[in-house]
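Help! Submission page says 'invalid entity' but I think these are all valid:
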Amino acid sequence: MPEIILKNVKKVFGNQFVAVDNLNMVIEDRSFITLLGPSGCGKTTTLRMIAGLETPTEGQIFIDGVPVYDGEKGINLPPDKRDVGFLFQNYALWPHMTVYKNISFGLENLKWSKKEIDDRVNELLDMLKIRQFVDRYPSELSGGQQQRVAIARTLAPKPKVLFMDEPLSNLDAKLRGEMRTELKRLHVDTNSTFIYVTHDQLEAMTLSTRVCLMETGVLQQFAPPLEIYQKPENLFVADFMGNPTMNFLSARVMGKIKEGLMLDLHGKTVRFTGEEVSCAQGADVILGVRPEYIAITDKGRIQASVYTTLPTGMETTVRIMMSGELISAVVFGSVDYPVDQEIRIDFVGDNIVLFDKETTKRIGLGRLVVEG
Amino acid sequence: MNKTSNRVKAFFSKPANVILVVFALLLVLLTLYPLCELVHHTFIVHATDATVLPGLKKGELTTASWKKLLTTSTHKYSWINFYKPMVNSVVLATLSALFALVFGGAVAWLVTRSNLKAKKFISTVFIFPYIMPSWTLALFWLNMFKNPGVGTGSPGFVYSITGLCAPEWFVYGLLPMVIVSGLHYAPFAYIFIGGILRNMDANLEEAATILKTPRWRILLKITLPIVKPAILSTFLLAFASVMGSYAVPVYLGSPVNFYVLTTKMKTLQTTAIGQAYIIALFMVILGALIMMANSLLTGTRKSYTTVTGKSSQISLVDLKAGNYVITGLLCMVLFFVCIMPLFSFALESIIIKAGDYSLSNMTLNYWFGSAGSVSTTVGDTGIMRDPAIWSAIGTSLKLSLCCALIAGSCGVVIGYAVVRRRGSKLSQWVSGLSFFPYLIPAMAFGAIYLAIASNFSFLANSFLILVLVGTVKYLPFATKSGTNAMLQLSAEIEEAATIFGISWWKRMTKIIIPIQKASIISGFLLPFTSCMRELSLFVMLVSSRTQTLTTMLMTYNEKGASQYGNAINLLIIVLVLAINFGVNKLTGASIDKGVGGN
């Protein structure tokens, strides 16, 4: 079964620009992997290197146990020998061919018989609900329809691995939601491995079985989306995942206690308890608190004021001013607070993250209790 | 060791790299090697040199040609044969390029930015002068204004009808040359500047309008600076083209001893070829300087030229009452320079005695007459019955077709490779080299290849050398349009096919070329048209067996057979226009598409 392995893969453009550095990854069979990160982080380059459209500078890539690239041995299989499909951001439909021809052209080249090609094209036309457009040219289709044709073309030769480079970024919000649903369903139906590039963390959260989060060519964390959300490896990952973003509060370690630390948070003493906590006294740390772990309650032990309220209908983001720092809290339902209203807040939940300020690495995960 | 060989293997597994390496070598062979030969030949004593350089034997190495041409003060030899023509060339090229720029640029602005009438007619007819041979207007000018008071003394149209004698400075010399060359290259400015104005984001100008900037200030402070790179490169390219032109100076300058570098070089070729090569070398150096100036001045700001946006809703400047006046004037000028020449040539080709336009003085015998029906200095049959003419038509068509096919195909392939490997040193080197022939004046280019032909006997006087020189000379056009075509196509269109394992050849023929059909055929059309009407490039290289229509025309005009000359001229223009029109209707390709307009 096609397992994809990347070993020490590196890509240097020109003479100095390192796009991807020392990337190690194992992509399991039939998983839905998202390469996530801000623009310019090397995610598209990684995808293109696995597909064979870009040649790595060094390292090894295996698909299904077969080395498709090996810098030392000089192996570099062309894309067509890797049994992969590729869905491009701008669809890259051939403008001079009809929908039918766009789908069949690649198959003709694979020496399929006429009957097989016709059957497969018809199957895909039904599967992606594009039968009525079969004789049209790409310029006569809407963006969403073009997207479907592109997917059909990519799926036609039944590739074992499917690569997608930000395939939904050219669609409007509503269509993007629909296509997301269908892609996830398609992943199950086609029984193949999907590798998906996006800069949209919501897309990565909702679609993938594992997320590979990158920054400036370096892998930050490779884990299931919820694990990345709950247990981010470092500040960058914590900040990138989640909307509204995680609140970061500076604190100082006052002393150790059993299973935890006593911290100084803006003059207040707080107790942090949880697993794997390790830190020296006097060190600077950062508390990462998801907006849903900040509760607005009359019993709260911290005094704060409302800066502004952003209702979306289903939930409301409240921006709160706390000791000169602006933080976010999420409240279920529509709530409207007057600006500058005095409120009291408290920390809830088990997944408050502790980061070392210097290394930005996660050093603890647990609960936070305000002592006074 | 193993690693290096792996890297080499990986490098050559990409078709684009193979193409670049092949063309890098080929272009060095076809452009740099000839250049070295040219330099070499300026130091050799040739058979013709031996007579003007006493005491030296044929084949000897010497600097005598250099000394003779550059430092002889006796009888002002250097001044007359080198410095004066040089000054004349530069003055002529500067003024012509300026004229072309102002006229072409103004029309481009009027067509894209004002509510001018008859835009369709103007934009169609305006590029006629560029499609027609460069000497068309020069001959037309002579047909109109020559009179007994100047030159050969034969009467022209204006004199015959009105009896007015135009002064010599008006008929021959700098003024008519500037007007004629300027008009010929104005379409150039029109296509380049018009293309950018059309693609320019109208929001840029609208933003200024919102800020209450007056119209003239927008033109001066926004529009002009944005098209500045195009203006500069148009000026330099027109300058280089005029520097290398031969036909216009020979018709309008030589009769009154107004020599430029090209005409001087042709004269020296028969008497002292070593010195002719030196002049050619100076023209190459000038060309290279222009290329450097061009990349220096526009290099950093080139990105402006790709400004695009929604330019559909541009608000046009209202010319108000001036509209009809400007439209009328422009149409009149265009009618005069684009359509009148055809009538003039037709008329002059059928009158027996110059200056007499009565019906009794007209005959079609110069076209279709049998042997003995007319009497001229070169023959007594109509040109359509002259086997020499038919052979010249055949040579011209065959030559143009060969050059267009080879240069056009190379252009597509080079364009592909350059775009795919954009930014790499090799790609820059190849695109630079392929542009180089454009800046070597045609005349000097011919001279270089003449020098090489003397080393390889199978090339001398052959059809092959004409094909070679034509192909290399027009490669820049073909490469430019090939590159343009590839730039418009995203790499993903090709990658989508690569994924399916479709071979490079099939990707080119089934995907890339069909999509960019119109642009690519334009890349073939341009070398074809240029080749059909080329004179200066071939004039030194043709033999009696390989006469083209243009060199034939030259011979007849030199011998004073003006009816034949006019007839052949009309034949060339009609052929070129017909082929252009036909290809345009059939495929949608057009000359202006080829040089970057739309």
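Support: the input was valid. A stray whitespace character was the problem, and the output above is from the cleaned input. The interface with chain B takes residues 14, 51, 53, 55, 71-74, 76, 78-81, 84-86, 88-90, 92-96, 105-106, 109-110, 153, 157 of chain A (CB under 8 Å).
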